[in-house]
Amino acid sequence: MWQETYDIIVVGGGHAGCEAALAAGQMGMKTVLITMDIDRIGQMSCNPSIGGIGKGHMVREIDALGGAMGKAIDATGIHFKMLGLSRGPAIYGPRAQADRKAYQKFMLQLLENAPNVSLRQERIEKLLVKDDKIEGVAGLCGITYLAKAVILTTGTFLNGLIHVGLNHYPGGRAAEPGCIGISRDLAELGLEIKRLKTGTPPRLHGKSIDYTVCAAQQPDAVPRPFSFRNKKIERPTAICYLTHTNPETHRIIRESLDRSPLYTGIIKGTGVRYCPSLEDKVVRFADKEQHQVFLEPEGLDTCEVYPNGISTSLPADVQLRYVHSIRGLEKAEIVRFGYGIEYDFVPPTQIYSTLETKRISGLYLAGQINGTTGYEEAAAQGLLAAVNAVRKLRGEATVILRRADAYLGVLIDDLVTRGTTEPYRMFTSRAEHRILLRQDNADRRLTPLAYEVGLVSRAVYEELLDKEAKIKELTTLLWQTRNDNQPLAKILRRPEVAWQELCKVDSRLLPWNAYPEVVEQVEIEIKYEGYLRRQEQEIKKCEKMENLRLPGDLDYHTVPQLRREAKEKLTRHRPLSIGQAARIEGIAPADISLLLVYLAQSQYRQEFILPEGKTDEAAAEIPPDNPFSGEE
User: Taking the complete model, does pTM exceed 0.85, yes or no?
Assistant: First the structure.
């Protein structure tokens, strides 16, 4: 049998796999990305869009860490929109419709030209494990790929089953086979496997749509780039359109539920609650007379249109009937029928915060295999899995982002601490400190770390240092320059005063308009100074709990008076800190107090890091309230 040896193997060429391979290669590791079809690398299986509120924040963070997704959408986007502008800067989220084929081509070219990265078109069906350590993978072509780290980014391909009405057939995506071997091996290795479900709408021929009765959705006149490396976007754009379902649409669906795999019990997996199928919307929101349908072009050189909002697994004839009942779509031609897909995933409480599995050393999981949904969530995991795989191979410290550091930290912590029983999707409401975790300051939060671990160049880091110096200079100027015996900074704090109004007050500020990103940071920090300071204080309080590191070999069954449920859950999750333990579902404040007392009096007394200013005897007095409760 032919063998090839690498430092890191990435299985899967979706968004997680692309970021993982690029990051590992950038950090100097000999890497191979193995995928079933190289021509489908970076495929947007569902909506060809990137970003949104919460998701757009993650794309900016991925870019700040040296990832590729932001650059790819900037280069191939056809409709850019900043969402959440009616609310506040913490909520602003960039979103863009992509040219599907152009995005794939861009990502493939990045990988083909990436340092230390090889591509292989191969179907992997076997994991090679010895003494609970990964050794590599084997493909159907008779090749064995060896490495000390393997990152699985298998998307919906694990034991995938596609549903169209009462018909179903194996597949990982439309017209592509699924993968059974990896799922089987994971189960045999002792990992728990469960099922999830997602779906996609029918695709329409654009020339068969009557746009004159639909509402035009214009893109932003001056689009905001996703990547901090890009200062402006100069690309052709497209218009999206809005229409709605109606009572007739809903009647057709209700009368067809007996042919729905969702409502006849054929589909067992849990679907995406925040992006339900149309039949699910009609049943769950029976009082609604209409639902939005956004008609989004799939590219500039194709007539295919993505009708966002009508995902389905209903039979083909029902899809055609309900599509034709929608205003503007009366004569619409369906190019591809929608479908639902069930697939295996690994409940993510079985992985560490590094995304390495607890049972198999060197085996990392990223993307939908961990129970998430969305390109952005997958890309984030792929990047962080690669970083930690590289650093483990080098014997270096792991990189674990805190909840206060990034939405990426919130994502990983939610997965490994709380797990998920439904496809996990990021929202700004999941973050306790979202005033600090804005999309506009992701580079300031994360690029220093990216430079430290080798994901970005010295030039990128120095550009950030120059930006920080300008922010400090402008902030000082605004506090030292007075108008009517009042600092300009205090005038800027007024709700009715924006930067441009302040420039009218003092024309000496006009040259700073050449640095819009600097102005943006200074204006936000001055206007929201009180809120920012309060969140920083909350973070310091939470850090005390996070700094209480839990011993990896602690036997929770020996902790006196600890409830049986707490012992079982702490043993299963193996939290890294008291803070993480407090966030595990079912762990009560009293459990945390008992654990603190035990550790302060146990053999781990010297290793146990107490909050600043606390003595061992005072450990029992630590407030038992969960510092992460409240809004979440």
Answer: yes
